[in-house]
Amino acid sequence: MSVMQQTFPVNADTDIPAVGFGTYLISNEEAVEAVCGAIIAGYRHIDTAAGYRNEEGVGAGLRAGLEATGLSRGDIFVTTKLWPGNPAWGDAPKTEAQTLAEAEASLARLGLDHVDLYLIHAPFGGAERIGQWRALLELKRTGKARSIGVSNFNQAHLEEIKAAGLPMPEANQIELHPWSQKPELLSYMKAHGIAPIAYSSLVPLSTWRAEPGQDSKKTDAMKNDGHAFAGMAAKYGVTEAQVLLRWGVQNGYAVLPKSLNPERMRQNIDLAGFSIDDADMALIRTMNRGEGVAWASGDPSLAD
């Protein structure tokens, strides 16, 4: 097989690589080596967030990776996200002005003058959601973000933007895997030209967030059912993770695997040499179990 070089359009001027490198739960210190290694392995999209508290390390890893490969900044797609606040956690929602300031702070931590995609991390802003979105529109207008979008927004949150008469998000990063397929939301997004980006694609694996401190809403029943894709992996001569990631790409979702293991890092982007046949794609469509499980506090798309 070979490195996946496929891309998906986000807007008329911006394409997102089909496979990116996710950095959630990677510390600021680990991020330098991890991001550099990912770029050397062939990743051309690096995904981070203010809430991950690793933007400085990601930026340093980006610079190291560019130096090691001879690539330029324009060769790498960088995503980061606004932490919007969350009143349920005693964290006041960001205002429009605070959103602009937070974006500038992220750029400073990353050491960049722009990102390729800037997202609102979750719909926790309540009455400030529209103000936050207006700030993102301004970031795009001024060139601080080549594309803009949201994360964990459901149809009602997106309709709120539409009802305000504002341009719709160009992307929505959501939890997507065979156990949380969100067909109605994806249909709405397709009708409105909103690109899906999948996170937590590897939830069905028994190894997903198995370490202490990596909490989620994954149930014991799910944990005991983590081998559903072993047969497919054997059939295609790949890993179970590669099956899950390929499923996302075949459905048109950019995916964001994360690993600190160099071999798995290489495997996770090594998706170009096989495809899942129609029968298996149909079988996977029967596996949907509903809500996402990646957030220990519950699926953020259910926020008011």
Care to describe what's here?
- With 304 residues, the protein is α/β, with parallel strands linked by helices.
- It has helices spanning 28-41, 55-69, 96-110, 129-141, 155-163, 183-191, 220-223, 230-236, 240-250, 262-269, 278-285; strands at 7-11, 14-17, 21-22, 45-47, 77-82, 117-120, 148-151, 171-175, 195-199, 254-255.
- It has an 8-stranded parallel sheet. It has a two-stranded antiparallel sheet with strand order 1-2.
- Strand 4, helix 2 (55-69) and strand 5 form a beta-alpha-beta unit.
- Helix 1 (28-41) packs parallel to helix 2 (55-69) and helix 8 (230-236) packs across helix 9 (240-250).
- The model has no long low-confidence stretch (mean pLDDT 95).
Widest sheet: strand ordering: 3-4-5-6-7-8-9-10
Q: Helix segment count? A: 11
Q: Report the biggest beta sheet as strand number plus sense, adding barrel if it closes.
A: 8 strands, parallel
Radius of gyration: 18 Å
Helix/strand/pairing class, anyone?
A: alpha/beta
Beta-strand content estimate: 5-15%
- Residue share in helix: 25-40%
Mean pLDDT: 95
Which sequence of SSEs, written as H and E, runs from N to C? EEEHEHEHEHEHEHEHHHEHH
Count all strands and give the number: 10
What distance separates the N and C termini?
44 Å
Sequence stretches where pLDDT stays below 50 over 5 or more residues: none
Shape: globular
